[in-house]
Amino acid sequence: GPLLFGGRGEGAGDERQMRAVPERVEMLAARVARLIALRQTPRAKRRLAIVLFNFPPNGGSVGSAAYLSVYRSLFNTLQALRGAGYEVDLPQSVNDLRSRILDGNATRFGTPANVHCHLPVDDYVRRETWLDEIEAQWGPAPGRQQSDGRSIQVLGTQFGQVFVGIQPAFGYEGDPMRLLFESGFAPTHAFSAFYRYLREDFGAHALLHFGTHGALEFMPGKHTGLSGDCWPDRLIGDLPNFYLYAANNPSEATIAKRRSAATLVSYLTPPVVHAGLYSKLHDLKDSIDQWRALPPSNGEAERLADLIESQAAELDLSAADVGQFDTNTRITGLAESLAELEATLIPQGLHVVGDAMSRNDRLEVLTAMAAVAETPIEPAALSKLVDAVPMKDGRADKADTVSRLADVNRLLSQDHELGALVSALDGNYVRPAPGGDLLQAPEILPTGRNTHAFDPFRLPTTFAIQEGARQADLMLQRFADDGHDLPEAVAFVLWGTDNLKSGGCPISQVLALMGVGARFDTYGRLAGATLIPLSDLGRPRIDVVVTLSGIFRDLLPHQTRLLAEAAYLAAAADEPIERNFIRKHALAHQATHNCDLETAALRVFSNAEGTYGSNVNHLIDGGTWCAEEEIADTYAARKSFAYGRGGEPTQHKELLEDVLANVDFAYQNLESVELGVTTVDHYFDTLGGISRCLERAKGTTVPVYIGDHANGRSRVRTLTEQVALETRTRALNPKWYEGMLEHGYEGVRHIEAHVTNTVGWSATTGQVSPWVYQHLTQTFVLDEVMRERLAALNPAASSRVANRLIEAHERNYWSPDDDVLAALQDAGEQLEDRLEGVEIAA
Ligand code: BEZ
Ligand code: MG
User: Fold this and answer.
1) Which of 423, 421, 424, 414 is nearest to 446 (CA)?
2) What's the pTM value of the predicted model, to 2 decimals?
3) CA of 555 to the centre of ligand 1 (A)
4) Cα 608 to Cα 616: distance, rounded to the nearest angstrom
C-alpha cells in the first residue's frame, strides 16, 4: 500500500524544501503499528473481517465476484483458517455457509442478506466524524440505504472470530435522477458506518476483501497519493487491508493498492476451453460434412442443401450472418461461421480458491497455449505432459515450448492461494507477480501473489507501435469492406487493462490513425508525441475522439498527455485539410465557436478526477429509464471532461457533442478471452454510452466495431456479430452455462448478467439481433427444467432474467409470437411469486 508522507512545496525558497506531512506520517506510523500488532496477535486471538460484495444490489448477487465461486472459495478459506489455528465456527457445508449469510433473518427485515446488527442512529451521529459531508449528499442520518429509519443495518454473519460482512452499495444505482446529477462527494451513511463497525466495534485485526471487486477503492478522493480528506483512506484508516484479486486485472488491482492500501493476493481465472459445437449446431455441421462429400448437382446434395438452409434458419445463422449468395457460397459461409464458433475460446465455470485445476482443464489450457506457440505440439504429447508426475525442482530451465508448458502444468496442478492467504494474514511479505491473462502471460503463476503493473514510462513498446499500426489498418480495412469511404473520425474507447497487457497496443492504434508517433528520451522514457509526415503515412490523418476509462486516466497520465499532444500537433500542422481531418474539424469548430486551437483540438475525454464509469450501466440495470435521451445525458454528464496537453481536465459537453458529429464509427478492442462485451457491464457503459451520444449528435445510427485480439489472431467484428458470437459460444452453449451452474447461486447471477448486458447493448446501440432474445428466452425461461433449476438456485436472479427479457420485448428489441410472449410472461409471474413465496416461507 503506497503512502505519500512528504514532498516539495510549489512556492519559492523554503517552500521548495522537502518536508513531511504530519497527518500522513501519523497514518504511516499507525499502519505499521497495526501490521506489527497483527503479526504479534496469535492466530487464535485474531479477529478477521471478510468483506463480500453485492453488485448489483437486490439482484441475487450477494457475494459475487469476477470469475470466482465465492461461497466455495470462502468455505475453503474458513476451513484453512481453522486449520491454521484461527477460532472459526465452520459451517457444515458450502450450502450451510451460503444460507447463514443470505437467509438468516433476512426475510424478517426485508434485506438481501442476514442482518448481523443494528447501529442506532444516535450512536452513529455521535461517532461519525464526517457527518456534515455525508448529510450534504444523502440527507439526514441514518438515510435510506440499509436503514429502518432508526438504525443502520450491518449485513453479514459471524463465524467465531471471523465476521463475513456484506459491503453496502454506492447508493445511487437504482435512481435515474441521482445518476444524472450525482457528483459523488461522499459515501452513504451505511457505507461509512459499515467500515467504522469493522474498525471499531468488531475490532478487526485485519480485513480481507473477497474477490474482484468492491466499491471502497472507488470512493471519492484523489486518484493517487491519498490524504486524510480522501474517502477510501478515511474508511480503511490504519486497518491492514488484504484483497483477494483476479490475477488478470492488474489495472483495477492497482487502483485497490493505491487508493485503499490493499495488499493483493491473486487468484486464477477459470480454465479457457474451446467453445465447441452443441445440439443443433452439431447437427448442422454433420449435414454440411455430408453435403461436402457428395458430387454437386446430385439429387441428394440438393435435398441436403435444403435441409442445411432450414437447419441454419432455425439457428438464425443464415439471416444475420450469411448474405444472399448462391448455394455453394452460402454453405461455405455457414461452414466458416461454424468453424469460428467451434474454435472460439471461452472461460469455463468459476474459479475455486483452494482447488487445483483438474487434469482435463489443464489439458484444455495447455492445448490453447500450444495452439499459438511457435512450434506446434501433438495432442498425444500434451496428454502425456499433463499426466507426467510434476518435477519437484523449481522452474524448467529450458526455454522451449514443451518445458514452458510442463512448468505451467506443474504450477496449475497445485493450489497456491490458500497458503498465500494464511501467510498474508500473518502480516508476512507477499511476493510480487505481474498481472495478465494466463494464455498470454503464464508468468502470473503461481497465483497467491501481489499483482503489480509495469513501468509507465515504457508504454507504448516498440512491438505495440508496430502492432497498433497493423490493427489500425485492420479496422480501416473492415470499414472499407463494409462499403464505406475512409472515415474522417472515429470514436475510440481505451481501457487501462488492455494497454497494460499489450504494452500499449490500443494507444498505438489511436496514434497510428492520427499519424503520430511517440518520442522517447535517451533513457528510453516516454517524452511526447511527434508527427509522422503525411508522405510516410500514405493516407490522411484520421480524427480520433478518445474516451478513457477512469482507470486508464489514473494509471496512464503520461499516455493521456501523449494522446492530447498528438491531437494538438495534428490540428496545428500546416497541412491541407483534405489530408488532415483533425485539423479540418478543429478549424471548423474554431470558426463557429470562436475559441483557441488548444480547445478546438481537445480529443481526449474521460471522467472528472476521482470518478469512474458513465453510470449508464446503473441506468440500464435499474430498468426504469424512459427515453434514449436519458442514456446520452447520463453519459455526457460523466464523460465529457476533456484532458488537454497539461493533463488537467475541464468539462466540455458542447465540444464533445460537436466532435462526435464528425464521427463515422465507434470502436473498442477486446484483449482477453476471459472478458466478452456481454460478460461485464463496462463495455456497454462506455462504448454503448458513447454510441448513444454519437447517434444524438449525428441524428443517425453509426456502426460499432469490436477488434477482437483475444484468440491470438485479430478479427474486427461489428457489434452485432460480436454479440451473436458470444451468445452462441457462451450464453447458449451448455459447456458455458453448465460450467456456471455447477457453482449454483453465483452461476445464475452470471447468466443473468449476460442477459442484462445484452439488453444494455440494445438500449445503447440498437444493434443486437432479435433472435438473440428469442433463443435466450427458449433456453433459460421456456425450458421448464432449466427454469426450475435457476429458480431453485437463485430466485432473485432467475426472476430478473425473465423480467429483463420481457423488458427487452417492451422496448421493442424483439417481437416474440403471442404464444411465446404469453409463456414468457406467465413464467415471469411464476418466478416472481416464487421469489415472494420463498421470502414468506423463510
Ligand atoms: C480498465 O482497465 O480501464 C477497465 C477495467 C475494467 C472495467 C472498465 C475499465
Ligand atoms: Mg470494475
Assistant:
1) 414
2) 0.93
3) 11
4) 16
